[in-house]
Every structure is written in structure tokens, then in C-alpha cells.
Known about the structure:
Elements lengths: L13 H8 L5 E4 L5 H6 L2 H7 L2 E5 L6 H12 L4 E6 L7 E6 L2
Parallel strand pairs: 1-2
Antiparallel strand pairs: 2-4, 3-4
Amino acid sequence: MCDDGEIVVPVATIDEIVEKENPKVTMIKMDIEGSELEALKGAKKTIQRNKPKLAICIYHKPEDMLEIPLYIKSLVPEYKLYVRHHSNSNVETVLYAVRP
């Protein structure tokens, strides 16, 4: 613990982990409270190489509904994108990306 009360948490990108472990990635699911776009940027190489199915939450920030689909299509233009809302409230909206 630091003197100011904050905890330092080490992080690694998906690309760093995949490069080290070298698994075949077939699906990525994210619900990380508004950090989805940044995490996707850290998975760029993995997504382009493996073209896994994606299930990405897009309800945490209003801009996510536009920015995340555009970013995913910029990585893998052939992805087909689908949006599904899994709740009666304004949460749980998920973007699915799959190859045809």
C-alpha cells in the first residue's frame, strides 16, 4: 500500500499475455466498467491474428456505442456486428462481433 492510500495493481495487455503464453484465442468477453476500448486496444494483435468472437459491453459510456464498433471494424473489417440488450434497465447492452 502506498502512503496516499492507493493500491498499485500490476496490469498486462491481452497481447502481452497471449504473446507470452501463445494460446489460440477463440473468444474475448469484456465487461470492465468503461475500460473496454482501452482493453481492446491492448488486444489489437490478438484480435487481428485470431479473429476471436467478441462480446463487449458498450453501455458504460455513451460514446462506447459508436467508438467500440468502429474500432473493432477497423481491426477486422469482415466481422459482422450485433447488439443485444440483456436487461429491462439501461445496462447490459453487449456488442457481439463474429466472422461470417
